[in-house]
Write a structure and sequence with these properties.
Strand content: under 5%
Number of strands: 0
Shape: elongated
Number of helices: 8
Order of helices and strands: HHHHHHHH
Helix content: 55-70%
Structural class: mainly alpha
Largest sheet: none
Radius of gyration: 22 Å
Distance between the termini: 64 Å
Amino acid sequence: MKASTELHDLIKSLTKSEKRFFKLHSALQSGPKNYLRIFEAVDAQDIYDEDALKKHFAKEVFLKHFPSEKNHLYKLILKALRAYHAEATVSGMLKIEIKNIEILYDKALYEEANKTLHRAKRIARENERFYYWFELLNWEKQLLEEAYESGEFTKDLDA
């Protein structure tokens, strides 16, 4: 069975700064990181050779579940890339703001969620990203309902 080259292709597609960011992002976790060793070994290969990787890591315990380790590494690289490119576009910033609203709402921090909501609506309006408007209006409705239920309803519904 031929080994998949997806991990190799992803690693080789990374820019120098993306690779550096991934390594720094990985350094935030303590302890030994097998996935980082696999990253370095795959990155050193010009053409993907899984047999060579298996020989390189022959004495390692994680070799028994090597496909799982490679899958874990693949997902971590994508996660780091999302973080690296998150604020590169207006859409990325709006997605972050919407996620922040959701987190604040779930933690019952409604005032902070409301502030974030207004900031996100301003960004969406200024950059004409109206396809985010529906989701932002839904959050505004949820926050209004929460304010009404808690007796802190001060907004004029007509507004």
